[in-house]
Structure formats: C-alpha cells, structure tokens
Write a structure and sequence with these properties.
The protein has 220 residues and is α/β, with parallel strands linked by helices. It contains 10 helices and 7 strands.
Length: 220
Amino acid sequence: MSDSRSPTTDRRGFVGAVASMGAGLALGADARAQQSASASDAWLDQLKGKHRQLFDVPEPEGGTALRHLRNYLDAWRNAFGVGEKDVSVVVTLYARTTPLGLQDAMWEKYQLGAALSLTDPTTNAPLVRNWFAHPKPGDPVADGEPGTSMETLQQRGVLFALCNNALTRWAARLEKSGMGAAAAVHADLVAHALPGVVIVPDVLVAMTKAHERGFAYVRS
C-alpha cells in the first residue's frame, strides 16, 4: 500500500539517528573509531524496512551505483507503491570507493581525485572535491541526473557504510606518497567522514552481519 507521507518526512528521523552516530567527530578520530568498533551493530538496528538490499560498491565508475540506488528506490515507490520507510538500503564503501565517504577537505588535502584519476572539467585539473556526495550543475558524475547524489540518497534513507580497514590502507598509501604519517592521516580521514556515513570495522564482516539481518546482496 502506498504511504501518503513525504519520503523525506518518513526518513527524517532515521537520517537524524544515523547522523547522530557521526557525532563522534567531536570525540576525536580515535574515539570515533573505537565507537564504531564497539557499537558496530547499532547502524543495523536502525534499519527496519521490510525490503532489505545491500549494494556492494568497490568501484566509483562515474557514479553508476548512485543511479542504480536511485532507480531501485524509485521502482519500489512508482511500480510497487512501497514507501521508502519500508525499504532499507546499505551501500558499502571500500577499495576505490573509500574516498566517496570523505569530506571535500580530504579530497583537496590528500589529492584523492588524482588518486582516482578523476579530472574536474571546469579546471582541467585533478578533482579536489567529492562530487559524488554533492555534485554541482554540469558535473559529469552520474550523468548529472537529478536526485543522484549521496546526500540526496541519504535523505531517502540510504545508509553508506565506510570500511575502517580500507581507511587504514589508504592512510598507508598516502604516507608512501609523502602526505604524512599513516597514523595521523588515518585519524584525519576518520574525523572527516561525511555526515551520516557510518564507519564499520571491516566491510566484509558488515556484509555478513547485514546478510544475517535479511539483506539481499548485489554488486553494483
């Protein structure tokens, strides 16, 4: 049955709860990492939709997965009359999608666009902002389709789970590039995850835990 409430209203409380989990920013990077490890199931407890899907996304591929996510939610709503409060979606960020879970400041400071071979067409230089999270008009990510951004999808209830092991590996990689000591870089990355993004100790364990909660799996 179709839900007459606004999808944004339906999910506002959920998104607020997820965002509050990111309040560890004020606690410092180490405290936030410890909080993520010790309460690693809390993010799953928030997901109560009848229909449950996990999108495994190790490659950015121009935002293709974001289009899939938008189409997935639209199909439930438009074709089946299922409101977003009844659909729970988890997206795993690791490997080459690890930077997608980070704020613009990290993209600029650690040259993450260059690491992913992404060029900003407005500057013809390596990308120094996270256009997957909040693209500007004219950005080619996801072909510039309306509603296809991480922030918009979060507003619709999608939860992005960022792997701490992947952050550790990226920190070691950035150390080799002369960006600073790995431990300090890792702390910086953890402290500057996007609001609402949940850092999980290990993405593979997160997939298992989601499966145990009834989430279907698709690689996107």
